[in-house]
Design brief:
Elements lengths: L1 E8 L6 H13 E8 L14 H9 L4 H4 L2 E5 L7 H16 L7 E5 L16 E4 L8 H9 L11 H10 L3 H18 L9 E11 L2 E7 L8 E2 L2 E3 L6 H13 L5 H7 E7 L9 E10 L15 E8 L12 H12 L1
Parallel strand pairs: 1-2, 1-4, 2-3, 4-5, 6-11
Antiparallel strand pairs: 6-7, 6-9, 7-8, 7-12, 10-11
């Protein structure tokens, strides 16, 4: 018998497969710690429900005696650094268990696909493997729901159905449905190609005296969210030149090439497979640091950007940023320190 079993997931939404794993965990441990991932992301077609909504789905699916044995803890995404992500998981678990080394702690889950490799990252914790429950997956449930189809009790608990029905009446749902339809149409436009295309994009992380240059997106997907200046690579340009072009088109930044090239510090590929809902998109990030002794350059939104602005780094929040842009900023800044 374990003292704690840890179940890591996004639960977007909570379904009967998740329920089966937790029931197994409750039978083999005193308490279950549910680490709910993507806890501080803005709403999107991939991250539809907030932490507290998913917590409600989970706890409402159990009788009070069992619900009191389940602790839901938010887990922030760290997409490009497994070492930091493992530490964040351990910290989240220790926020419940304390530092008692005598406790028997384990992981519970099933090997779904290559994304389940995380189960091997915690050698100190024994893993309890659970078979997939009738092949149920959250992604097709969520995709169908955002296009108007409610899931049935054959796939999700009634607690999930209740929350989904209520959320369907909100303006947030309508905005996400518009995005879901846009994404369906977008994918349909290249559905007859021999293979799904892989898109190449660029993003600029431009820092000046503790500020970062961001834009507000003017169109779906991600309308109203903050984002890094960037966009798609043109056929006749290098990645670096594409970055400079997008930077100017979206922010009207008046700095010349020589100044930007002098400010260039590093470059990195960001390729998390689900980073873009429109399709497989790999972005090349470029990190720049401008001379802090000079004034903040004036900027003005252009092209796809409704606004361009300088934001103090201390005010950058993951729940405001489009796709994986917070993770990109976080990675560059952690390396720069």
């Amino acid at each position: 018998m374990f003292d704690y079993l840890v179940f890591i997931g996004r639960f977007q939404p909570f379904h009967l497969g998740h329920l089966a794993v937790i029931k197994t965990a409750l039978a083999q441990s005193q308490q279950v710690i549910l680490l709910i991932g993507s806890a501080e992301q803005p709403r999107s077609t991939r991250n539809t429900f907030k932490f507290h909504e998913r917590e409600t789905m989970v706890l409402s699916a159990f009788e009070p005696a069992d619900a009191t044995r389940i602790r839901c803890v938010p887990l922030v995404d760290i997409l490009y650094n497994d070492v930091r992500w493992v530490k964040s998981v351990e910290d989240a678990v220790h926020s419940v268990t304390g530092d008692n080394q005598a406790l028997k702690i384990g992981l519970v889950g099933h090997y779904k696909d290559r994304t389940s490799y995380y189960l091997s990252l915690f050698p100190r914790w024994e893993t309890v493997f659970v078979d997939s429950y009738q092949g149920i997956s959250a992604t097709p449930i969520r995709d169908a729901y955002l296009l108007g189809e409610m899931p049935t009790e054959a796939r999700v608990p009634t607690s999930t159905i209740d929350l989904l029905a209520a959320f369907k009446q909100t303006s947030d749902y309508q905005a996400l449905q518009d995005e879901a339809r846009y994404i369906v149409d977008y994918k349909e436009s290249w559905s007859h190609t021999p293979y799904p295309p892989t898109f190449m994009t660029v993003d600029a992380v431009l820092i000046h005296s503790g500020h970062i240059l961001l834009i507000e997106r003017g169109h779906i997907p991600g309308k109203g969210l903050f984002a890094l200046p960037g966009g798609f690579l043109d056929p006749d340009e290098t990645l670096f030149n594409a970055c400079l072009r997008e930077l100017r088109e979206e922010t009207n930044l008046g700095l010349d090439d020589a100044t930007l090239r002098a400010a260039y510090r590093s470059q990195r590929t960001f390729d998390e497979p689900h980073r873009c809902e429109r399709g497989r998109a790999i972005t090349q990030g470029f990190y720049f640091e401008l001379d802090a002794s000079t004034p903040l350059p004036k900027v003005l939104g252009g092209d796809d950007a409704k606004y361009a602005f300088w934001l103090p780094l201390a005010e950058v929040r993951s729940d405001q940023l489009f796709e994986d842009h917070y993770a990109i900023i976080d990675e560059f800044l952690n390396v720069a320190q």
